[in-house]
Specification:
- The structure is a single chain.
- The protein is an alpha+beta fold.
- The protein has two domains: 7-62 and 159-233, CofE-like (60s Ribosomal Protein L30, Chain: A); 64-155, no CATH class.
- The chain contains ten helices and eight strands.
- Helix 1 (31-38) packs parallel to helix 8 (161-172) and helix 4 (94-104) crosses helix 5 (106-121).
Length: 235
């Protein structure tokens, strides 16, 4: 499991992060039921639950085996123009590009490719993903460090993320968020309540306590400790 400091300080506030280890979540499993099973016994009043986007998507059957994806000629052509980031495959392989085309449509992907190409001429990166949109950005490709069987899958973004959070929150009795976190940043994908946006999510999870590899910790708890706990931690 990834080493991390369980307590993080954000301004005058302190937050405890508790990572919850689970089995490998598969298609058809209900996230709300899993939170009741794994997380509910650890909950205290005021806690907020966060769920990894990949686990939520896998439960919805949005993880597609590589050998079931047959890239089109367009996908094979466009992948040549995608920036190959050092931190992940993104849409840099024909299979992930093919799924992006299926998710957002040919016209949007072509527009993204044109604008992305123009951006490269002027030294501007990332325009392709901005134009392609969230569904395309959310696609994760296979990687050796990912827990099996998803090391050989393309994982799409979560469908109806806010709705999934609301249903899960009703079952587990605590607020729920779905987050896309990695070692370079974090995006909030879904929230059971808009009020959760008040939390300084990026500061709380900036060190990605869930890990990036085979930690099997798709669920976590954020527990606000308040300013008093911060002063105690230095005593």
């Amino acid at each position: 499991m990834k080493e991390y400091d369980p307590i993080v300080h954000v301004g005058d506030e302190a937050y405890l992060r508790i990572m919850i280890k689970t089995h490998t979540i598969m298609k058809g499993e209900d996230i709300g039921d899993l939170l009741v099973r794994y997380v509910q016994p650890e909950l205290q009043p005021g806690d907020v639950i966060f769920v990894s986007e990949k686990a939520a998507a896998a439960s919805q059957g949005r993880a597609v085996p590589l050998d079931e994806i047959k890239p089109s000629w367009l996908a094979r052509f466009l992948v040549r123009f995608v920036y190959k980031a050092p931190y992940g495959i993104g849409l840099g392989m024909p299979e992930t590009m093919e799924m992006a085309i299926r998710e957002v449509g040919v016209l949007r992907i072509l527009l993204a490719a044109i604008i992305g190409g123009l951006g490269k001429i002027f030294g501007i990166r990332g325009l392709f993903y901005r134009v392609a949109g969230h569904k395309a950005r959310s696609i994760d490709g296979p990687a050796d460090y990912v827990i099996p069987p998803y090391n050989r899958h393309v994982v799409l973004g979560v469908a109806d993320a806010d709705g999934l959070c609301r249903r899960a929150a009703e079952k587990v009795g605590a607020p729920v968020a779905i987050v896309d976190a990695n070692d370079i940043g974090l995006n909030i994908i879904g929230l059971s309540s808009p009020d959760l946006r008040r939390l300084p999510w990026r500061a709380i999870l900036k060190d990605n306590p869930a890990g990036q590899s085979r930690e099997s910790t798709p669920f976590g708890i954020i527990r606000p400790l308040g300013a008093v706990e911060k002063s105690r931690s230095f005593s």
